[in-house]
Design goal:
This protein is 30% helix and 14% strand. It has 120 residues and is an alpha/beta fold. α2 links the parallel β4 and β5.
Length: 120
């Protein structure tokens, strides 16, 4: 009979999850973007995450309201200051092959502004 013994070293992992952010870009008659509540709320959430001791941040989809390059770029710029590793998952509002941005383009735009991404 063999007895296998090993020590298990556990560590608490703290994760912040943001779901259904739905940032929306609204333009006025002059074509300027208006800061709407969803953008303001996401900026506040980024500040809160940076002030806590979480290990990771996960965005669980529907990060934008309408799939277009401008919305994805705005989302990526807003989350750029997150000082923790973060992961972005897709929701049904994030991509649209017909009228908006496909998966590859979505992640290309998000990664363009990210300094917390891994190479793998």
């Amino acid at each position: 009979m063999f007895v296998c013994g090993s020590s298990v070293y556990a560590k608490t992992v703290k994760v912040s999850v943001m779901s259904d952010v739905h940032i929306k870009l609204t333009q006025n008659k002059q074509g300027d973007y208006i800061i709407n509540p969803s953008i303001h709320n996401l900026k506040n959430a980024v500040k809160m995450v940076n002030s806590t001791d979480v290990n990771y941040v996960i965005f669980t989809g529907d990060c934008i309201d309408n799939s277009n390059k401008e919305s994805v770029t705005m989302f990526a710029k807003i989350i750029k200051p997150v000082n923790k590793p973060y992961y972005v998952l897709l929701g049904n509002h994030d991509v649209s092959q017909v009228t908006g941005v496909d998966k590859k383009k979505f992640f290309h735009l998000v990664n363009r502004f990210s300094h917390n991404k891994t190479k793998k």
